[in-house]
Every structure is written in structure tokens, then in C-alpha cells.
Amino acid sequence: MQISTTLSTTAVDDARLAEILAEPGFGTHFTDHMFTVEWTPEKGWHDARITPYGPITLDPATAVLHYAQETFEGMKAYRREDGSVWTFRPEANAARMARSSDRLALPVLPIEDFVAAVDALVKVDERWVPDAAGEKSLYLRPFMFASEKFLGVRPSQHVTFMVIASPAGAYFKGGLKPVSLWLTTEYTRAGRGGMGAAKTGGNYASSLVAQQEAYANGCDQVVFLDAQEGRYVEELGGMNMYFVYADGRVVTPETGTILEGITRASIIELAGKLGHPVEERRISIDEWRDGVASGDIVEIFACGTAAVVTPVGSLKWDGGETPAPTVEAGPLTSKIRAALVDVQFGRADDTFGWMHRVV
Ligand SMILES: *Cc1c(COP(=O)(O)O)cnc(C)c1O
After folding, report:
1. Which ligand 1 atom sits closest to the C-alpha of 239?
2. I need a surface site. Which of 64, 129, 254, 339 has the fewest CB within 10 A?
């Protein structure tokens, strides 16, 4: 893939950039450039380019605005003490986007092109990667959408893939205190044969009303159960779940209708290395409730790229509540979080070969 570059003439100045990086928040500030490549059946992927960041013009009949044919990814670039910049398992994000795109009848962007696109943007906007202090990073958002102007219902014949980047601080403003969860019994996020395993905006759109219900009930996040029986824990709106048992076992819901997180997959390997075998299986809401009550479940946490590892506190539903197993992050939660973050920032040996150097 040949990438042309048009540099911004209105790049944010150093003083303003320092201000932004001191307090980046999440998803509000964007870098000076963006990456774009387009696809048509005749030409395949073509016209790859880095251009100044800015609005894109879409015809009101653009397919994605009507039928939501789109996929996205979330990943981060981390700066090390020595100034070098690295991404974490970018091929895994590329492979997942390929799977998501297959499900959404979008063309597959080859893994090496996905990685090259992300690398190109990180390189051109390298000054936007925050210093290692405070676990800040540059959040990267690759996304692909049906950009054909057509209202008929069929896979789009024009597709656009882009990457944008946004400096990120802590995802949850409260820091590492447990998030409280709302158990929705009315809404589900994924059924058999549906899009649950694809990273696509529609899954998020359908989760928002349940998230709203969570806020209305004083909870931070919503947890979804399986669509078939309404008994088994699936995941949060955008994070996978882990349960730690008193005997050291760790359980995470099995895949199928959940979105297979790269953080989730990495924790399976890390926990194993720390001597905690991980069981991927169904876990019912009764097992959760009874396990916390009996002291069998000693820690619960959620994980994903944006928030890394976050302890889970109480679980509330219409008519009841299960208390938090821990008041703070539990010992294994903290250990796993530290092990992961240390690899990402290059403070620990990358024994799994997860890191990819960009700068
Ligand atoms: C992205 C996402 C996750 C977490 O995946 P990571 O690769 O770990 O960031 C979990 N659940 C859903 C629904 C997601 O979209």
C-alpha cells in the first residue's frame, strides 16, 4: 500500500499540545492528521493517504447513515521512558476487524495494510503520544464504513477505511475504584447468529438505552445476559468480564455472542503465567450472586483497551442487589492490571511478543 502524505499547515502549537496532553480526558481531542483509504469492487483498496485532520463530507444518502454497515477497532500507542513508541498486538486488531468486516459484508483490509495505516498515522502525529507518566497513551480508532451514495439494501460498493487518534488519560474519572453495575433484564446485546462478536456501532447503539437505565439506577455500567435464557453473564457494553475464585481459579464467559477482547485474550495468557488457570465457560447470574454471598468469588473485574482492567463492585437489578466482593481493586485484579500495563509501557519483558515498535 502506497501512502501519500499532505501535512497540516494548522497543526496545534507546542504550548497548546502540552496543555492537552497534561489533561487529555478521553475521546475529546484529536491529532493533526488522519488516515484514509477507499475501496471499490473495480479498484480494490486505493488512494491511501494521510491528510490534515478534519470533517468529511457525506451525501445524505450515504449507506452507513441509514443501514449502519460499519466496523471499528480500538487500540493504543504507548510511549516508553526511552522515548520510543509502541502499539500492542496490532495484528490482533487487524484480524478482528477482518472478522467483523466479514460479518458486516464489508471488504477485508489486509492485516499488513491495517498495521501500516496505524503506523503511518502514529509516526506523523508522534508528538501527540503522551509521556509514559500517568499511564497516558494515544488512543487509535480505525474504522470502516459503507460510503456509497445508495439507499438500496445491499453491501456497499464504495467503502472507506480511516484511522483517527486521540490522546487518552484515565477512562473512568473515578480512578481504580470499583464500577457499580446494573443488570438489565429487559435488553440483550447479542443473539445466536447476530453481530455480538463483531465490533460494530450497532452493538453500541443497542446498548445505550440499557446504559441509560444503569445511570438512572445510580450505576456506572450495564451488564448484559445471554439472549436465549437470560441467565448467563455476557459482558458490559464495551468490556469483557472476569471472576476470581477463592481457590485461585479465574473464570471468563465463553465466546460466541460476546466480543472477544484482545485484553481478555491477553489476560488468559497472563493469568496462566501467574499460576491462575482461566476457565472459559458460561457463568450464570446465580453463580455470581451465590458466589459473592458465600465468599467463593473474591474478585470481579472488567477489561478492555480503553479502561485496561477495572474492578467491578456491586450488581443491582430491579428488586435486588449483590454487594461488591472487594471495596478496592482486589489483589489479583491489581496484579494482572500491573502485569499488562508493564508490558505495554515496556517496563516488563515482553515474553509473549505482543509489542510492535512504531517510532
Ligand atoms: C472492544 C470491545 C471489548 C474489549 O475489547 P479489547 O480488544 O480488549 O479492547 C469488549 N466488549 C465489546 C462489546 C467491545 O466492543
Report:
1. 10
2. 254
What's the pTM? 0.96
Please say if the pLDDT value at position 36 is more than 90: yes
> Is 133 found in the same domain as 34?
yes
Strand partners, 50: 5, 35
Pocket probe mutation, ligand 1, options 73, 91, 199, max atoms within 8 Å of Cβ: 199
Q: Mean pLDDT in the chain?
A: 96
Which of 26, 263, 308, when mutated, tests ligand 1's pocket best, judged by the most ligand atoms within 8 Å of its CB? 263
Phi, psi of 5 (to 5 degrees): -130, 125
Structural domain range at position 130:
3-168
Q: Is 350 helix (H, G, I), strand (E, B) or coil?
A: coil
Check: CB of residue 225 under 8 Å from CB of residue 287. Answer: no
Domain containing 219 — which CATH number? 3.20.10.10
Q: Which residues line ligand 1 (CB under 6 A)?
A: 74, 199, 203, 235, 238-240, 259, 261-264, 304-305
